Structure formats: C-alpha cells, structure tokens
Amino acid sequence: MTLDEQFQPPPPETPTYGVVLKNARTAAGLSQVALGNIVSCSESLIGLVERGQRKPTKSFTIAVESALGLNGDLFRLLPNTRVMSVPKWFSEWPAVEESAHTIRTWQPLVVPGLLQTERYARAILAAEPGATEQWIEEAVETRLRRQSVFERNDPPMYWALLDECVLLRPVGGKEVMREQLEHLLAMAERPNISIQVVPLDVGSTAGLLGGFSLARSEGIPDHISLEDAAHGSVTAHEEAVRRVSVRYDAIHKWAHPIHMSQRLIREVAARYEHQ
Q: Are β-strands 233-235 and 212-217 bridged in parallel, bridged antiparallel, or unpaired?
C-alpha cells in the first residue's frame, strides 16, 4: 500500500433522505409550512422527516418530489423501492398543476391523466413497452396523487377538450370504459370542471398533431406541457405558450357545447354497458 493510499479520505456517505429533502426544500425557497400546505401535511411532519425521526411513506415521497420538481432523488432512498421511470421532462409538470388556477387541456387519444380512473390509468400504463408490475403500480399511484389538485380549497378551473375517439377506444375493456365515462360525467358536475367533446365528423382539426396542456398561475409565467410518442416537453417560453393557446382556441370552436358533450358521453357509456 502506498503512502497516498494509506491517507485516502473515506468515501463520502450517501446523504440521508432528510438531508436531501431539506436541501431541495431550501433550494426551492419553501418553508416547512409552505411545503406542508402544498402536499397536504403538517409542518411538524416535514420537520420530523427531515430530522430522521419519522419514516417517510411512498405516497409522501411522490407528493414531495412532485412539489419540488425532483426526479427520483428521494424515491431512491426509500428501502425496497426503485426510482420510478418518470420522464425527466415531465417531472416539473405536477408542481405546475399544484400552483395553477386554470388548466386547459386537449387530448385526441386518451382521457387526460387528471380525469382517469385507477383501472383506466393502469390499462394505459400497462401498454408501455417494458413496463413491470412494480413500475405500473408506482406510476398509477403517481397519476392518482396528481388528481388531489381537485380537492384543494381553491381547485383550479379545468377545461378539457376530448376528441370523440377517446370515448370510442375501449381501453381496458368495456367495463373499464363504462366506469371511466361515468367518472367523466361525475367530474363534469363539479363547477370548476368543463368537459367538451370534438365530434369525429369534424374531420381534420388543429389538434391531430398531439395532446397538450396549458396552466396559468399567479405570479409565475404560463406553462405548457406537450406530448408525443418519443418524448415531451414542459416550457414557459412565451412564444410557445402563445402558439399552443391559439391552437387550443382553434380546436375549441369545433367542440360540442357542454350539454351535448355530456349527452354523448352518457350515450357511449350506455353502449359499453349493453355490449
């Protein structure tokens, strides 16, 4: 053994969950109270976890990672778990949703994530190439956790445009689809949620290139989330936001009014029930 090898410093210890959480919270400019408000838990719980006096749960970790824009930094420190395969580009979007007062979305192929039932979400995620059972369950949990934005005291206004083919594609089978469409009708009863369907007989629309969402929040720029088969993106670039907003308006003009959209959803749900 050489002299240099004898006096090599010991390898740095892996930071604890609490240290990583505190550093990320501080970097985000959030107090324990502020982070607790975002993830719906107490200031004291945040403090106990940061000091290593309370074991964090998987659901707590998912919520905190979304709020702080992390991508597995905390999840990999939980025992008997692996980092979820959440695309890096998407990791900041849940935090955008959390702070938004208005969200608009267009989906030409599937029900938007914030309106999906558990079984529908599982069927969608199970189709991902290479998906394992563990990954599917973790991804479903993440998706359902995002839906807590509708349980806030001040939930966002949510405007969803769906292509009619979303209703017709039997994701998960007829029972799953009937349940999903009934869930859409129930969510549409909420005063902050609007669901409109763009009929198939419109033909070509400005939305055939893919789905997207737009979010508006107080004090921060508008953000958009764009989706495609290979990867997606989240950006607050002013020109990109403007272009997507114009595209949303162009699609919206072809949509059925709300009452006609609800009637169509109800009719398709009934068809699944009697098939």
A: unpaired
> Helix or strand or coil: residue 157?
strand
Q: Contact, 231 vs 265, CB < 8 A?
A: no
Task: Please say whether the beta carbons of 104 and 159 come within 8 A.
Answer: yes
Query: Which pairs from 266-272 meet CB under 8 Å and 24+ separation?
Result: 266/181, 266/185, 268/167, 268/168, 268/181, 269/177, 269/178, 269/181, 269/182, 269/185, 272/170, 272/174, 272/175, 272/177, 272/178, 272/181
- Sequence-distant (6+) residues with CB within 8 A of 63 are 39, 40, 41, 145, 148
Task: Summarize the chain as % helix, strand, coil (round to 5).
Answer: 50, 15, 35
Q: What is the residue type of 77?
A: L
What span, in angstroms and rounded, lies between the C-alpha atoms of 143 and 115? 10
Of residues 63, 44, 65, the one with CA closest to residue 53: 44
Residue (of 146, 139, 108, 134) closest to 121 by Cα position: 139
- Amino acid 268 reads V
Digit-by-digit pLDDT tens for the chain (275 residues) are 443 444 444 444 568 888 999 999 999 999 999 998 888 888 889 998 998 888 888 778 878 887 888 877 887 787 655 444 455 556 678 878 888 999 999 999 999 999 999 999 999 999 988 888 888 888 888 888 889 889 888 899 999 999 999 999 999 999 999 999 999 999 999 999 999 999 999 988 888 889 999 999 988 889 999 876 656 788 899 999 999 999 999 999 999 999 999 999 999 999 998 77
Dihedral angle, C-alpha 39, 43, 49, 52, nearest 10 °: 170
